[in-house]
Amino acid sequence: MAERNSTGLLMMLEPSPAMAMSLPVEVREKLAELELELSEGDITQKGYEKKRAKLLAPYIPQIQGVEPSLQKENRIQMSQAAPPGSKHNKSRATNTRDERFRSDLHTEAVHAALAKYKERKMPMPSKRRSVLVQSSVEACTPPDNHSAPPDVTGLLEHSLHADRDRPPVASVKVVPRGYNHSSVMETADGVPVNSRVSSKIQQLLNTLKRPKRPSLREFFIDDFEELVDVQQPDPNQPKAEGNQMSPLAGEPLGVVTNWPPSLLASLQRWGITQPRSPCLTALDNAGKPVYTLTYGKLWTRSQKLAFTLLNKLSTRNEPLLLPGDRVALVFPNSDPVMFMVAFYGCLLAELIPVPIEVPLTRKDAGSQQIGFLLGSCGVTLALTTDACQKGLPKAQTGEVVTFKGWPRLLWFVTDGKHVVKPPKDWHPTIREANNEIAYIEYKTSKEGSTMGITVSHPAMLAHCHALTQACGYTEAETICNVLDFKRDAGLWHGVLTSVMTRMHVISIPYSLMKVNPLSWIQKVHTYKARVAVVKSRDMHWSLLAQRDQRDISLSSLRMLIVTDGANPWSISSCDAFLNVFQARGLRPEVICPCASSAEGMTVAIRRPPESGVPPPGKAVLSMSGLSHSVIRVDTEEKLSVLTVQDVGQVMPGALVCVVRVEGTPYLCQTDEVGEICVSSGSTGVAYYGLPGMTKNTFQTIPVRASGGPISGRPFTRTSLLGFVGPDNLVFIVGRMDGLMTVCGRRHNADDVVATALAVEPMKFVYRGRIAVFSVSVLHDERIVVVAEQRPDASEEGSFQWMSRVLQAIDSIHQVGVYCLALVPANTMPKAPLGGIHIAETKQRFLEGALHPCNVLMCPHSCVTNLPKPRQKQPEVGPASMIVGNLVAGKRIAQACGRDVAQLEDNDQARKFLYMQDVLQWRAQATPDHPLFLVLNAKGTVSSTASCLQLQKRAERVAMALIEKGRLNPGDHVALVYPPGIDLIATFYGCLYAGCVPVTVRPPHPQNLATTLPTVKMIVEVSKSVCILTTQAIMKLLKSKEAVAAVDVKSWPMVLDTDDLPRTKRLQIYKPPTPEMLAYLDFSVSTMGILAGVKMSHAATSALCRSIKLQCELYPSRQIAICLDPYCGLGFALWCLSSVYSGHQSILVPPLELDSNVSLWLSAVSQYKVRITFCSYSVMEMCTKGLGTQTETLRLRNINLSCVRTCMVVAEERPRITLTQSFSKIFKDLGLSPRAVSTTFGCRVNMAVCLQGTSGPDPTTVYLDMRALRHERVRMVERGSPHSLSLMESGKILPGVKVVIANTETKGPLGDSHLGEVWVSSPHNATGYYTVYGEDALHADHFNTKLSFGDTQTVWARTGYLGFLRRTELTDASGERHDALYVVGSLDETLELRGMRYHPIDIETSVIRSHKSIAECAVFTWTNLLVVVVELSGSEQEALDLVPLVTNVVLEDHYLIVGVVVVVDPGVIPINSRGEKQRMHLRDGFLADQLDPIYVAYNM
After folding, report:
1. Measuring CA to CA, how many Å separate 630 from each of 404, 568, 672, 723, 967?
2. Rounded to an integer, what distance in angstroms lies between the CA atom of residue 1302 and that of residue 318?
3. What distance in Å separates the CA atoms of residue 1014 and residue 1021, rounded to the nearest whole number?
4. Do 986 and 1026 contact (CB within 8 A), yes or no?
5. pTM
6. More reliable by pLDDT, 26 or 1284
7. Whole-number Å distance between alpha carbons of 968 and 970
């Protein structure tokens, strides 16, 4: 890599090798210019094609003879050959690459590295067609050839799933109709999966099976602090071996006899003595000189402006500006004359100019940060030109808008008519350079914040002096300045030093360079310029556009100052430029790279040849060595080397040293790379208004290894990384801004860009539009590469390029790329004068606002510092645990509700053992007492039932069952009804006839294909011999649509109960024993398991009694219920509780809320209900649907102050965020913040906890989530990092006993220990109802005993993890209150890396990561974590979510996400209780039924 030659140069100018043979030189050059315009975004794709076709039209016949394989390779599809409308009739110069990063040797190295990788098949992400922003149609995944299976994504609770680890019930594996067996393959655990998704996941697993990094040492320290694995330094890594360096001094500043005392004195001198001498020539966009500013004009115009600013601007008769005030200079790059006048005008008025870029829109990249700088500098006035002011965005008042983050500014136009001539007796004060601030130059830090660097008058003067001496500037020399004159070298050479030395500056605007990249070379030739100040980009552009112009000569140049010589890759531009222009008079020794930074100003510059300095140097360094901050001249590994050129000698009068980058600034050894520090009178002085950062940067005291300072004077850190080489030449290998420290090794962003550009990028991305930066994830930096994708790049091609870039960077730099993103053309934030705004790009990436069209994440290969996987310790026996708890003074975690036997109440219903007897007694005692009141969507009463009416209706149903149905006692009957009185009446009718009712949710008419099979399955599994329903549903069960979904001929007898005859007197069936089966309760668990439990008559009555006592329910009470009535506590409250306790129930079917979301709350307010029950889905609907309408509700007189208790019925951990936001929103309607609480029930016991009306308020605790993963409970303070808030699940019901048991040893646990919640109570269910009769499971779940301690009590296992904690509160009996906290379902936990995760915790983190994530669900498949997110925003945001989701799960949970699936809102199936059906989702994903917007497979 030491020698960069120009063999690639001609190739760069040609669209393809094939065309090269047949195209004339001038056509090739025009094509190259077009190529440049397109790559820099100055011409649209359409315009490019039009111009290109025109150029090539005459030569098409010649090209038709090209070998077809070549044509195909270079994608030269001419208009005759291309099909109409083809997206691919665009040619590309395949070899065109950014010459700034060009090195044939590096390219060879990259290709050699890629050849080492076998083509590893990586799974390509899949996109929905609408998301293929710029993709060819062929890139879409083809549809499967078998017909689509029924959609399971819209399920509520209506679908079934194969058994999981704990298969307690009959669950039937259904292969949906339309599948043929050849297309269904099964995973190891029997899940039918579609071949496409699973094959991609298999590919992903195959790529992950070969880890490149050593696997982690598998051990686990049993400690609360999970230590992130710290990478141990490699003992074989190179170490610095040289002596400690000595500070390097530049030659002394020469003493000049007539040197002016200040820059303004110099301006005055030339303005008066040489008024006609040209100072600055400005050019227009055609390259013609439009104005030449003479020194006389500069002097008089600056005086006019100074006088106007000080004397003619005032507010309330006070002068607007005082000496020392800061003033913003907002001038376009095309108007150097006005800028120069304004700059010197400010200096003469003793004001401090702050030059900034012209803000074009309110959302310019970095503009907000500039605003913060202006605000902190106290800027109130901005100077600008008339044309610029007219172009700024205006408010309706006609004033310039206030840009985002900017202070309010007055805009003053400095054109002639606005300034006044000072009176004869007014003269500006020209002082000697004192320590006041001269000007403030802005700089953007790596993080994107903008700082103002203050430069004092003496520093400005000293810097001009040093530059004049180092560059040998003489009076009246002509200098060509291509740089931005507002800052950096463009300001130092083209505005300050030029005036000091009376030079003539030709200023080349950026807009001209874009139109004619050769303009600066032409001007050097025209004006016989002696010096040109350029960047390597300008040299590169001129190479692309150079023509065979015989009349160009660069022989007048004595110095070509390359100001970004600090970029190590500038050497390639210098070499290539020299190769081409040496024939035009350019001497090799003229090229003078320099190194500078905003803080240190010019640090080093290669001297012009006449000053007798040593010859320039080059170094070929090992990149591996550089990553360890060690200089190693290239060894055997030819693959990864960096060739750097020197940036000359230290500036006159400066002292330079190299210090360690981190920690104490120790001097480096001679073979070590560090940060260059400079001590001289010509550096910046401070960061304006930031004393702390100023001290660190501008007042560094470098120390020797012994600890002593090297000098009494402070040094300025330059943010340049480099070393001092032979002949005291300074070498720069990068900047602090581009430094990325990954796993303790340092990598330079520019080097990574060069490697990416060496992977034949031009077919896929734009060469000048690649950003490389690092983001901090999980205690280390992670490398991110973002590039702009060409519109004609195919999806597959881009993906292959991305894969190759990852492999190349891994091979060359030995570092993994965390994320590679491609964004659509022209969407990356631009810096004001071309190039990419890196900080803004990074900001958008982290905020999820980059909108990429392709993303490849590789966390598996580059996150190597995860905590060590946990290894289970041999379990301590249950007896030892009890003893341990006793020794520690902890009580056993056991608690119980109030004793039912001791609670005296005048409960008449206690006399009856059976619910049917209670109803009969109420019908006789209080026949007209209203029990039920059902509301419709309009809020009006649709039906009611008193005790007698219900009794009569039940008798008719019983008669129909016995006479029409000929059913016998003990027969099972399915009740398929919508929520209402019919359901309740038929339930009691079944009890009257001695049949066993099974309540079933009716199928959804619009979704029979998915809901009807569930109905069929419950009917079959429950062995129902008859179905009772309405006429409408009866027709539905046998409709044409039903025939397509199920076998309608196998339905049992169906009776409709719409028109039942009046009955003769009925003999009510009396069960022989209360232990007999009363009803079956079926529901689909969140794991997709259909579980039916048996409820005996005794358990049913006990359940009603417990609820009555807890909620103090009496006939005079009214309660409102907004729950589904088909299973669990919802069924008990809807159908049983009112009959037992005699209170009136206002029933609100949740489905009615779809058309009237305020129905439930209106009912609560209208009936002044004290107790109400709802589900989480109802609460969520109210929160989302009514959150902004509380004022409207108040105007409708909705008042919730009557509510004492609002209980959410659930079988899960309390959703504290939802309950809190519900309380907060409806506080305005009088809802007490103490009213909302939760309940807890499960399959084995429908009501374990229920807040009720008495007792202390629910308590909230904060747990350490990391300890929870290790199945431990550790309390932390609110707001602690990694904390999880957990709300008590309500009070334990009367008659219920709870114990916390170890899931494996079945021994009791201590207070505040995590284990399985076991429950013992008279209303436990008696067992599962299953066709297979698995007795072992039944015994384990319903009749289990502790292995130690109280071994007599029979318990039921809830399958939920939780803990008991004794609080300081007292309950109604005066005892200290024991709170039960439910953490989550044992079945749902994910076992990953030896730890137990609850899906809800990961989902909460993910939802928080981006505003457009509406919902999230996670599951595992073959040990991969799959995250499904619902996108509520536009589809272009879909890919923004992939990195954010991966980041947040890594940070919060130390897990790597394997697959991210982005879907539409509503795809994640939710059951009637509002719980996510994660297993249905998993099956839908594997069967490819989700229609995802995007699926990303993380490498």
Report:
1. 44, 16, 5, 10, 91
2. 80
3. 10
4. no
5. 0.82
6. 1284
7. 6
